[in-house]
Design goal:
Blueprint (H helix, E strand, L loop, with lengths): L17 E6 L9 H12 L7 E7 L4 E6 L2 H13 L9 E5 L5 E8 L6 H8 L3 E2 L5 E4 L5 E13 L7 E2 L4 E4 L2 E6 L58 H12 L12
Antiparallel strand pairs: 1-3, 1-4, 2-3, 5-8, 5-11, 6-8, 7-8, 8-9, 10-11
Helix pairs in contact: 3-4
Protein name: CCHC-type domain-containing protein
InterPro entries: RBD_ZCCHC3_1st, RBD_ZCCHC3_2nd, ZCCHC3, Znf_CCHC, Znf_CCHC_sf
GO molecular function, one term: RNA binding
């Protein structure tokens, strides 16, 4: 294999539960795929065929990518591989995870099915990066159930729950309301629209529109902000981000991979 430890073959959202073993010795011949599987995977790391979703060689990058079925197994094998990383033959490999901990599959339910996919995508792009195109989820009969699936990366935020910025679990796009959920989503309060607790334990009287603690949403007389970008200069129906999302979808140009955040 050719030595090249770049990750150009890895998509921006990463590869779930995948560990890369990249050969780093220029003067030595790397292990062949079968030898690597027998000695490294099955011998040192004690993996079985049932643990591995895919064991793939990448000759252009001089590496083997090993995708595990579960996140728990990925984390366990990564710890085990690094623990013996200084011993031969493991020391001949650079061991990295291709998974991204901030990757999420987001399921969105808009009660009005005629809301455009790109409008929802533009909204998610306010909080998340690398938002994919929508996938309409269907029931066992083949009917679309109103839910849409998106793949995206949580944006890092030191002040956010768990170090990430999370999109609100309940939201509005103009007059249309929706909800969203994803794995490892923090508890969400529908009273103050904040993460970290639920309605039953909320002690905050906080307006979800302007953030004031002096009144609740029903008594708010502040100018309403755009549901898409947060600006008070316009409402959702006139949001520039909403229009850019249409152009991105139609033209496939800049912004098509970021939820319409770029112009």
């Amino acid at each position: 294999m050719v030595l090249n430890t770049s990750t150009r073959s890895v998509p921006g959202i990463g590869l779930a539960n995948t560990i890369r073993f990249a050969w780093k010795e220029k003067e030595l011949e790397p292990l062949g795929r079968e030898t690597f599987g027998r000695i490294i995977l099955m011998g040192i790391l004690k993996l079985t065929v049932k643990d591995v979703f895919c064991f793939q060689g990448n000759s252009l990058e001089g590496a083997y990518n090993v995708a595990l079925y579960t996140e728990e197994k990925h984390d366990d094998i990564l710890r085990r591989a690094r623990a013996v990383g200084g011993e031969r033959p493991m020391s001949h490999y650079e061991i990295t995870s291709l998974a991204k901990n901030n990757f999420r599959v987001v399921t969105v339910n808009i009660y009005n099915p005629y809301v455009k996919d790109e409008e929802v995508r533009a909204f998610l792009g306010r909080y998340m990066d690398n938002v994919s195109s929508a996938r309409h989820l269907k029931d066992s009969l083949g009917f679309w159930n109103g839910r849409r699936g998106f793949q995206a990366l949580l944006r890092e935020d030191p002040k956010g729950h768990g170090g990430y910025l999370h999109p609100p679990a309940m939201f509005s796009l103009g007059a249309d309301r929706g909800t969203l959920f994803y794995a490892r989503q923090p508890p969400f309060c529908r009273r103050c629209m904040a993460y970290g607790h639920i309605f039953a334990s909320c002690s905050t009287r906080k307006c979800r529109f302007c953030g004031s603690e002096e009144h609740e949403a029903k008594d708010c007389d502040k100018p309403k902000a755009c549901h898409g970008c947060g600006s008070s200069a316009h409402l959702w129906r006139g949001c520039p981000a909403r229009q850019r999302s249409y152009a991105s979808a139609a033209g496939g140009g800049a912004g098509a991979g970021d939820g319409g955040r770029r112009g």
